[in-house]
Amino acid sequence: MSPPYVKVARDVACGLQYLHEEKKLLHGDLKSGNILIQGDFKAAKLCDFGVSLKLDEKGALREPDAQCYIGTECWSAPEALVGGVVTHKADMFSFGLILWNIIVISCDFLGSRPSLPDTPLTEDYLPVLEIFYACTEAEPAKRPSAGQIVHILDSMTDDKENTKGVGGNSKFLEMLHEDL
């Protein structure tokens, strides 16, 4: 059985995959406060779609000049903060910050990759840390898609021998950078 933080990460990634690929929407304000947890981590659901923006077939804002990215500043991707090109990868940066928030239980960051605490983490956290680092890449093109994250998290839970100590396993690093 996966730890609760992996379940939450997978549920959020599934929600983002649905938004980005099926509905062609950028959440635009992804943060821990916009994730609802049912019961004892039975399910995690995205909420607050009030600032969602339409995406084109390539995952970029459909009308970048007509609509502006609003999001909560400290959870926003660097490109959103400086007026750069905003794509679905902005949500993935915020997803990375959510992972950091789950691990560290803090929200002390602003539009950049926060450092990890000095507290040692067990090997169980290594795959999630790899995903955190990939999602918080400064260059949006280097960030994985929500679908890639779902695939990785599913592989972690499906393959019992890889549920612990996968930080050194190049399989997960390769999966993170496929098709980027």
TrEMBL record:
Superkingdom of the organism of origin: Eukaryota
Domain Protein kinase stretches: 1-157
MF terms (GO), sorted A to Z: ATP binding; protein serine/threonine kinase activity
SUPFAM superfamilies: Protein kinase-like (PK-like)
UniProt keyword annotations, A-Z: Kinase, Transferase
Record InterPro entries: Kinase-like_dom_sf, Prot_kinase_dom, Ser/Thr_kinase_AS, Ser/Thr_Kinases-Pseudokinases
Protein name as it appears in the record: Lymphokine-activated killer T-cell-originated protein kinase
High-level lineage: Eukaryota, Metazoa, Ecdysozoa, Arthropoda, Crustacea
Gene it is expressed from: pbk
